[in-house]
Amino acid sequence: LPDWLWRWPWVPPLATWINASFDFVAEDLGLMQVTRGFALMVQSLLDVSANLLYGKNRWPKIGPIPWVVIALWAFWVGWVLRGWMLGLLSGGTFVWIAMLGQWKWAMETLSVILIAAPFSIFIGLVLAVLAWKSRRVESLLNPLLNLAQSLPHFAYMIPVVVFIGVGAKAGAIVTIIFATPPMIRMGLLGLKRVSPEIIEAGTMCGASDWQLLTRVRIPSARNDLLIGVNQVIMQCLAMVVLASFIGMPGLGNKLLQLLQALKVGRSIEIGITIVLLAIVLDRITKAWAERQPQHYETGTHWSERYRAALILAVLSALGFAAGGLWDVAVEVKRNAAFSMSKPLDNSIGLLLEWMAPAAYEMRAFLIPHVLIPLRDAYLSVPSVSVILGISAIGYAIGGWRSALVCAGFVGFLAVSGWWDRSMITAYMVSFAVLIAALIGLPLGILAAQSESWSRRTLLACDTAQTFPSFIYLIPVVMLFGVNDVAAIAAVVVFAAVPLTRYTIEGLRGVPETLIEASDMCGASRWQQLLHVRLPMAVPTMMVGLNQTTMFSLFMVIIAAFIGTQDLGQEMQRALSSTDVGKGLVLGFCVASMGLMIDHLITRWSRDRQRILGLA
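Below the sequence we write its predicted structure tokens.
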């Protein structure tokens, strides 16, 4: 083949064009002043939350609130929403944070979430209402949302660093931007689901359009909106941890420092804290979404109506009294804090010593005999062959339209100037997805055979999906060191969860009438699984495969922190040099790969559902 078919020879200066556009928008149109003004407002709000949560010397200068009070408030919230178990988990998490001397770091993280989440929820709800009222707005937002949810985390950070700078306010603003799309999607979905009969009843009562929206439609969409709130808060926590790369203080920044210093024990302590916070925030917001408003009969005594508020007042009084009497109830000093780091270091040292030979053998086999040959194979394929091959797959699945879509996405990789880095990313993602499928599919199939095991496995999957992705790097770095094996291992652990989950849900969701029909035909359990359950569950399982692939793609980019040579490594360099053009071109490369995979899987799954009569 001629050279231009191996690699596209002319690379348009996309990064230069993007940088010029940003300079024009920032300087000539004055957007820089607008963003800096918004950043000042966010910073003032962060100063308030920081003063209240950990005593930063800013207005209103009444902080910090004693950790005992915040722990009691967390217990009260959990107890009100779901009872004693969630209350003890919530309150106990904050006791853990205080006892380990991590209070300031945790409050730095929560102070940003406390400001960023309401902004994301409000902006997302406003845009959802606009999209619901106007099909044109919806058609404009949908591709933007698809792109936004396909961009890696670092792609959001680079423009924010240019316009805002670094630090807590930059972390808060990038968190607001990153967490808004799920609120738009869930808000739009909830508003569309409201029953027409409810709207008719509101109209018959003489409600105006504004009253129908605020008093009828939005309250009726409460469950979907609160699920959106849950997703916003979890996205906020994930981004706040990763925003440590742009100077965001808090748990993520401390974890980054400890990982770089290879302080394993303290890294695990911070990791446990982040996981506990993720679980608590997830459980509380889900309980809020599931809890129905409580109504009292006329004449109910005020003490019964306001029982929860009275208990909160009593707990607050006790907490503030304890803070006034004992300094340790306000803050546990680091030198007086409990720490498990030395026992953890010793235990992990023994564990690693025991596992080191197996890890070394695995690393020694995989790197020269599997990973390097696979990477070289991906790099050796001509770009035109990849474009034609992927287009042929698109044509087989969805005809000429899908073929052109796939050709467009892969063609962008060819002309972006980052083809080789994209192929390295593709090799890591494809290998990780294969291993994740070999783990997740059998695990899901086995768990689906029993109701109790299904419930336990789904609970474990739900819990694992609340963990910020950064957490998965801790064990693999300890075990394998800094190399491609560690990165792929982190990707596999992170990405196997959705495939396991959707395999269970797909198999458990097969209609009982089909199972009874196969029983009457004398099918064995193996035949029933192979010829009835799996074929009917495939569309749902493909949703899990789609999520697994997207999770793998994002995790590979994050794993560049431990020394990979893919798009993620270049994205981190662009972040270090605040090169917006380069960072966005790299982000669009990642998004192109993700959107192409999403298009193919979604199209195939939709056609399969139609064939099976499920759509």
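The longest helix spans residues 341-380.
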